[in-house]
Prior knowledge:
mainly alpha; globular
Amino acid sequence: MNNIIIEPAVFNDINLTCTRPLLWSQAAAESRTPRLYVCIIAAIIHSIFWLQLAFSSSIRLKSLQWIYAYLITDILLLFRFFFLYIIGTRSIECEPSQFWVSFICIIQATMDNYLNIIEVYILLALNVCRYVQITYNKDVYRLYAKQLISAHLTVYLLPFFILLIQFPLGWAILVKSVDESCDVRYSSIYTQIMNLIFAFVLPIILNILVLYISARRVRLTTTL
């Protein structure tokens, strides 16, 4: 919580002793307005879908669990935006506690990246399950329930651990400007490359590979 750098900035308030570190500038708030409208529309669409899921048992299937997991992470991304938007446009406290500032900064700088990583690996898990079904003609979601639970835990916890451990090791640090957003800065180019490989390169390559093998299997099966 203490490894957060607060950069100097020009205060919009006349009283320079009241920094309001969580309040966005007018320009920053206005730049997020189009995204706010998009997120409101997305929230309405999500609400309609989950209401259908609640009242229709025909779409509550184990085979859709990865799709549900993906949609839940999408909801968390929406929640993150609305939460930060409310804080950034309504927080008028001059000197909030260091814990609260650190908490908001961590949510702003890391949660988006964490959830995006989870989504990519959820798609990978979905494609792997489809490949097993196509290749071995087995009901993955019924026969391998324990393995699926382990896969879910790995997808959610491993990225969290990898992102979190970088801060106490000094590989990453949170940087907060006074009236703008928080960002993660890395100590070296090697750390950036490692994160890039883990977050995007590796899952994308694996997804392409699994999709290719699945398509090839389907093509070979249909020609027999």
